[in-house]
Structure formats: structure tokens, C-alpha cells
Specification:
The protein is α/β, with parallel strands linked by helices. It is built from 16 helices and 21 strands. The radius of gyration is 22 Å and the shape is globular.
Length: about 500
């Protein structure tokens, strides 16, 4: 009889808008899930903050509810994994573990001027060779520099070693285990880690004026970190992955050439490049995909889109033209097409492949004919257009042509969007049986770290297709729609600065 019969793996998925805890069995099925939203704090235009203490409280709450829903205790868990919104920056007191400033979210653009100053004559690619990343407000180092520059007291405490910095994974790991750690995938999104060395780079620390003493230890994505205390007393923390890398793991995209697209708050497409570091010339970022134990790191090219599901939230919370997220599909289906209306959701600039911090959201093509259904459809179609932007950049960088796209995330339940995505790309779009691949990937990483699953092949054996959307649009219509989208994108430029 297996040592693991009747046992499970836990996974914490700390996302941009909510925190979830899942219990996963050996077949890869999610047997219980608990979720809790947290506030989106926007004190000024372009600023987005979270309360790290609120996130911790939500994490403990969902752990309790998730275990209760599964009818188990921490003793029934072989391991727990963490996956998280990346780049979001937390600074906390090393002694008492309390956050000392609001967490600055990855969407926040307050560091635009700082990024321009740091770029200087070298431009946006000043640190790309070392980090794989363009110099942009998206990443953690400018956010951390801003926090320290704004408060001389915090900087002096940081230099003295009494403050810790970390992305959300490090924050949760510290509260769960007492260890100050982050994994290679999250460290690689700070702009402070060398892409090849997988260690903090002294030149980068100097450029961003960040004290090395406040940085966490960098560990592999898969492997034993420490045993938990508190709500998961005694459970090994054995997996940490940034959310998009976790989705790759959950989709079993573990071979070079495998690709996935996740439709969540933002939209993120990654293609696995194996042990090869591919520097992008088409507007993508080069990132660590994962590292198993002491093995070689695997890398990926990534296209990051800031607004996907959050565009639907904007319709719900700001415009109030739908009551819930599911209502966007019903509203969009009240019209036959987009009525020549295009929505460019540059709420915090445009990410890949444009990297335009000066862009802001626009609605283009409005006529007296336009109605709420056209706007709802335009918001959904914007997700698909941005995905095509990224896919074209990915194909340009790799020379590969995808034959199909594996998709996951909350928006894949929207059949109108998935069909339009297939139509616009001209390739099949495939939805897996388990669409919550981010939380599943965190579970896989943790379970792999403790021997609950044997290897990559064991993980692949659990992947199953649930739905397939075949393209059904004439190439001429596809190209005409995409041409109009590009015109709308042009209209979003040069709004700021």
C-alpha cells in the first residue's frame, strides 16, 4: 500500500483580487477549495495597493475553511505549496513580521518617472541582458526603491537589517514558517536576480540602491523549504511558484515548446524554452519557468497583459452595467458583433509587447448605434486581441508556430471569448479538465518535492482535455478585425507625459 493513500496536498493561491486554498488528491483532482477576496486600494490615479495584513488574515481564513470543507486536518497533508501574484512588493519588520508599508501591486505605475531616470541613455533595455526584463513599473525593484526613497526611516531600518523585502510568496512563507525565502521564479521578477546565476546581482542592487541585507534567500521552486507553524502546523512547505509558472506546471507544460495562456486578472502566455535562455527582440520577457531541486533551471518566454478579467470587473464595479462577471457573456450575446467598437484597457499602461507606460485606456469607434452589448463584447474581444499580440511576438522570437493553445484561468468558462480567441488566432483553443491550473501547479510542485508524485511524466498523466474550440472565421475577417484593433491601440499612446 502506498505511503500516501488517503493523504492530500494543500495549495495556497494568493492572487491579485483574492486568496484561495485548495486540497488536491493524488489524481490531480481538487477535492476542496475556499476563497476570499481582498480590497483593491487605489489612493491616486495609477496607484494600486494591497494591505499585506489583510492578505495574511485571508490566507489563514481560507486554510481553515478549505481543510474543514475537505474534512481533514493539517496532519492529512503531505505538503503545501504557494503560488502568488508576482512583482507585488511587501516590506515588513523582521522582528514582529508586521508589514510597515502598503504592498505596491504589480499594476501600479507610480514608478514611471523613476524608471525613466534609471533608463537614462541606455533606455528600457538597460538591465535586459542580466534579468531578461525591460525596465518597467511592472517589476519589483523600482517599487522597493520608491518605498525606501519615500521614507528615510524605512531606509535606515533596511540598511540596519531590521526590515525584510519580498514578493507575496516570501511574505506568506515568512508568516507560515519563519524563514525569509523566495523561489527562483519570483526572484526573477524583481529585476534584482541574475537570470543565469539565479542569485542576487550586486550590480543590480547597486543600480536600484537596495540593501542586500533585506533580501530573502533564493530557493528552488520544487523542494523542501521548512515545516509550517500556525494554521498548517507541521506541514512541509515544499513548493513555491509565481502564478504564471504555476499555471505552466498545472498544465504539465514541462517540455521545451509547450505553451499555455492564463486568463485571470491579467492575461499571461508562456512558452517553455527548456534550459535555453532566449532573449526577446519582440517585446516579451525572459523568465525562469521553474527549478526542481538542484537541477538546472528551466526558462520561458512570457507575454504579460495587464488587463483581462479586471476589465470585466471594471464593467461590474465602475460602470455597473453587469451584476456579476458571468453577466458579461450574456450582455455581449445581445449583439451580433462588436459594432466596430474597440476597447484598449491600458488602465496602467500597456504591457507586452508594447511596454508603453504613457498609454491609457480608450474606447474607439463609437457611433450612435453603439450600446452596452457592444461595449461588453469589446471588453471580451480586447483579451483575445492582446493574446494575438503576444502570440505573434512569441512566434517571431522562437520561430515556432503553435498548432494549438492550452488555456486556463477563470475566463475560460466564457464560451464566447474562447470561440473568438480560436477564430482570431486561427488555431484550436483547448481547455483542460481542471481549469484552476494555477493552484493545481502549486500543489504539483509541493507534492513533487515530497515524493507524492514521482516525476514530470506522472504529472502529465493527469492532464485531460475538457473542451476544444476550433476556428470558424474567414482569414479576411480575422485580419480586418485585427487591423482595427491595432488602430485603436495607436490611439491610446502619449496620454501621460
Amino acid at each position: 500500500m502506498s505511503l500516501f493513500v488517503g493523504r492530500f496536498v494543500g495549495a495556497i493561491d494568493q492572487g491579485t483580487t483574492s486568496t484561495r486554498f485548495a486540497v488536491v488528491d493524488h489524481s490531480g483532482a481538487i477535492v476542496a477549495m475556499a476563497q476570499q477576496e481582498h480590497r483593491q486600494i487605489t489612493p491616486r490615479p495609477g496607484w494600486v495597493e494591497h494591505d499585506a495584513e489583510e492578505i495574511w488574515d485571508a490566507t489563514t481564513a481560507v486554510i481553515g475553511r478549505g481543510l474543514a470543507s475537505a474534512g481533514i486536518t493539517p496532519a492529512d497533508l503531505v505538503a503545501v505549496g504557494i503560488t502568488n501574484q508576482r512583482e507585488t512588493t511587501v516590506v515588513w519588520d523582521r522582528a514582529d513580521g508586521r508589514a510597515v508599508a502598503p504592498a505596491i501591486v504589480w499594476q501600479d505605475t507610480r514608478t514611471a518617472d523613476l524608471c525613466r531616470r534609471l533608463a537614462g541613455e541606455a533606455g528600457q533595455d538597460r538591465f535586459r541582458a542580466a534579468t531578461g526584463l525591460p525596465l518597467a513599473t511592472y517589476f519589483s525593484a523600482p517599487k522597493l526603491r520608491w518605498i525606501l526613497d519615500e521614507s528615510p526611516d524605512l531606509r535606515s531600518r533596511a540598511v540596519a537589517g531590521s526590515l525584510c523585502f519580498g514578493t507575496i510568496d516570501a511574505w506568506l512563507a515568512f508568516r507560515l514558517t519563519g524563514r525569509h525565502v523566495t523561489d527562483v521564479t519570483n526572484a526573477g521578477r524583481t529585476m534584482l536576480m541574475g537570470l543565469e546565476s539565479l542569485s542576487w546581482d550586486p550590480d543590480l542592487l547597486g543600480a536600484f540602491d537596495v540593501p542586500a541585507v533585506m533580501l530573502p534567500d533564493i530557493v528552488p521552486s520544487v523542494g523542501h523549504v521548512a515545516r509550517c507553524i500556525g494554521p498548517l502546523e507541521g506541514v512541509p512547505l515544499s513548493g513555491i511558484l509565481g502564478d504564471q509558472q504555476a499555471a505552466m506546471f498545472g498544465q504539465a507544460c514541462l517540455a521545451a515548446g509547450d505553451a499555455k495562456n492564463t486568463y485571470g486578472t491579467g492575461c499571461f502566455m508562456l512558452v517553455n524554452t527548456g534550459t535555453r535562455i532566449v532573449q526577446s527582440s519582440a517585446g516579451l520577457v525572459t523568465t525562469v519557468a521553474y527549478q526542481v531541486g538542484t537541477g538546472k533551471a528551466r526558462y520561458a518566454l512570457e507575454g504579460s497583459v495587464a488587463v483581462a478579467g479586471s476589465g470585466v470587473q471594471w464593467l461590474r464595479d465602475n460602470l455597473r452595467i453587469i451584476e456579476d462577471a458571468a453577466g458579461v457573456e450574456q450582455l455581449a450575446e445581445t449583439v451580433a458583433d462588436n459594432g466596430d467598437v474597440y476597447f484598449v484597457p491600458a488602465f496602467s499602461g500597456l504591457f507586452a509587447p508594447y511596454w508603453r507606460a504613457d498609454a491609457r485606456g480608450v474606447i474607439a469607434g463609437l457611433t450612435r448605434y453603439a450600446e452596452s452589448g457592444h461595449l461588453a463584447r469589446a471588453v471580451l474581444e480586447a483579451v483575445a486581441y492582446q493574446t494575438r499580440d503576444v502570440l505573434e511576438a512569441m512566434e517571431a522570437d522562437t520561430g515556432l508556430s503553435l498548432e494549438a493553445l492550452r488555456v486556463d484561468g477563470g475566463m475560460v468558462v466564457n464560451r464566447l471569448l474562447m470561440q473568438f480567441q480560436a477564430d482570431l488566432l486561427g488555431i484550436p483553443v483547448i481547455v483542460p479538465r481542471v481549469t484552476e491550473t494555477t493552484v493545481l501547479g502549486a500543489a504539483y510542485a509541493a507534492g513533487l518535492g515530497e515524493g507524492f508524485w514521482r516525476d514530470a511524466e506522472d504529472l502529465r498523466s493527469h492532464w485531460q482535455e475538457a473542451a476544444r474550440f476550433e476556428p470558424d472565421m474567414a482569414p479576411e475577417q480575422r485580419d480586418a478585425l485585427y487591423t482595427s484593433w491595432k488602430k485603436a491601440v495607436d490611439k491610446s499612446y502619449n496620454w501621460v507625459g
